[in-house]
Amino acid sequence: MKYLAESLGTFFLVAVVVGSGIMAENLANGNNAVALLGNTIATGAILFVLIKMFGSISGAHFNPAVSLVFYLRRELNKKDLLNYIIIQVLSGLIAVISIHYIFQIDLFQVSSNIRGEFPLLVSEIIATFGLVLTILLIRENDEKSVAIGVALFITAGYWFTSSTSFANPAVTISRIFTNTFTGIAPESLLYFLSGQLIGCTIANYTFNLFKKN
Predict the structure, then answer these.
(1) What's the CA angle centered on 111, arms 106 and 117, to 5 degrees?
(2) Residue pair 153/126 in contact by the 8 Å Cβ criterion
(3) pLDDT digit string (tens) for 48-77?
(4) Are the CB atoms for 202 and 125 separated by under 8 Å?
(5) Farthest-apart Cα atoms in the chain, separation
(6) End-to-end CA distance of the chain, in Å?
């Protein structure tokens, strides 16, 4: 059941990110700030709901970076890590196609939205570091509040990071295949994934420092 939970959770997360981006862009009349606000509210809301739904079943990762951290912390074995990552990526891709279908746009797309290079890498380091540290520290002190903590951090992250806080390799890969408001061009992928890997590793190390003290 944990694999099904990760699949459904990642599906709905990516569906909301991409779908709310399309809806916001359609309704915002070219005002990107309004479109981003709509995208932000929907994403923060669904994160809270999904973590509450599936947290007790799979841990509600929906994110290979989070799964990697729990593997490093020996709370997830290698088999589950690999299966989680595969499920998360595939579910995200299915979500993109599904959202394209219901909005009646081309099912298969590749984004042309080049989001940047090294500054975006740093932005994703900060975003992923903050997200993972939010999860680890709140779980340590008040496990029931992880859902609201993650939802609020990502809501803030949309606005204080130049990358709009992807902080999730599965979501990042999925967004390559939508040439809509939330898309990311393949040329930017390496910078985002590298930042996310570095960010989650540093967050785990930082949490360990807190634990030692």
Answers:
(1) 175
(2) no
(3) 999 999 999 999 999 999 999 999 999 999
(4) yes
(5) 54
(6) 37
Distance CA 194, CA 101 (A): 31
The one-letter amino acid code at 67 reads S
Whether the model clears a pTM of 0.90, i.e. scores above it, the answer is yes
In tens, the pLDDT along 43-54 reads 999 999 999 999
Domain regions of the chain by residue span: 2-212
CB 163 within 8 Å of CB 95: no
Three-state SS string over 164-189 comes to CCCCCHHHHHHHCCCCCCCCCCHHHH
Orientation angle between helical segments 118-141 and 64-72, nearest 10 degrees: 60
CATH value of 2-212 in 1.10.443.10, 3.40.640.10, 1.20.1080.10, 3.90.420.10: 1.20.1080.10
